[in-house]
Amino acid sequence: MIAREYKFICASSLWQSLVLRRLVFFSTLLLINQYAVANPGQADNPHYNKIGFFDMHVCNWPGQPLFFLSLFSTTHFDQINKIEVFDNNKLLLGQLDLAKYRIVMLKNPKREKRVFIKHLAIPNTSGNGWYSTKVFLKDGHLLTAKDFVIIYKMKQATGMRPYPNAMLNNIPETLSLHPVPGAKYYQIFINDLWSGNNLYSSDLLTTPSLKLPKNLLKHEGSYCWRINARDTNEDVLLGDFNHGSLTKCFEFDIN
């Protein structure tokens, strides 16, 4: 039995390559799960240092090659002089722009958190492993943090209902799509094409469908919607996930 299985695998180099890739992928997932169980608290979480949180995402967006989205969030932004990001081979991938950030207002106590975000190219030499950041403070101190990254291309959503460019006679009650392999969460964004404004952003969804709020869409309206899929979620505001994909905006009209 073992000999037959061995001969079957060795008969095709392509099949052997696929098997090895899967073994590496699932072994890495097991390593991450074991680390999470052993280190449940923030104090032992390698993403955190004394002033903030570091994370790396692997993103598949329309019209772009696969890229890293790197972020560092902190309420101590006024202490930072420079933030550098390194891959698993300690290659410098880039530097976060301190002039570009999103603001998150925290409560208890009320204070501002800034999330510095940058898209970074994925070098051919980069692979699965620990990615890191160096946070240089104005007082001369250096802080580090790290994130385990698996380079994987999550597919973009398909099977949208309504169909792209659909002309509907009735206002739909739901928007739906086929499940994305590897995705556990979805977020749906709806734009009003007449005004050009973002009309609605859903919470994170655990199923690939959205029940539309009443009176959100109107007759004689033109809309488009896009879907962000992700593999995990630990902090909605920080977008704490490893793999994600985003579709283009799919249009539909309502008579």
Description:
- With 255 residues, the chain is mainly beta.
- It contains 2 helices and 16 strands.
- The strands form 3 sheets. Strands 1, 2, 5, 6, 9, 11, 12, 14, 15 and 16 form a 10-stranded mixed beta sheet that branches. It has a 4-stranded antiparallel beta sheet with strand order 4-3-7-8, with no helix packed on it.
Q: Which terms summarize this structure?
A:
single chain, 255 residues, mainly beta, 4-stranded antiparallel β-sheet, 40% strand
Topology:
Elements: H1 2-10, H2 13-38, E1 52-60, E2 67-74, E3 80-86, E4 92-95, E5 101-106, E6 111-121, E7 129-137, E8 142-149, E9 166-168, E10 174-176, E11 185-192, E12 198-201, E13 209-211, E14 221-230, E15 243-246, E16 250-254
Low-confidence stretches: 1-41, 235-239
> Radius of gyration, rounded?
22 Å
**What about the largest sheet?**
10 strands, mixed
Binned, the helix content reads: 10-25%
Structural class: mainly beta
The share of residues in extended strands comes to 35-45%
The backbone outline, from C-alpha atoms, is: elongated
Q: How large is the count of helical segments?
A: 2
Mean pLDDT across residues: 85
Brief description of this entry?
With 255 residues, the chain is mainly β. The protein has helices spanning 2-10, 13-38; strands at 52-60, 67-74, 80-86, 92-95, 101-106, 111-121, 129-137, 142-149, 166-168, 174-176, 185-192, 198-201, 209-211, 221-230, 243-246, 250-254.
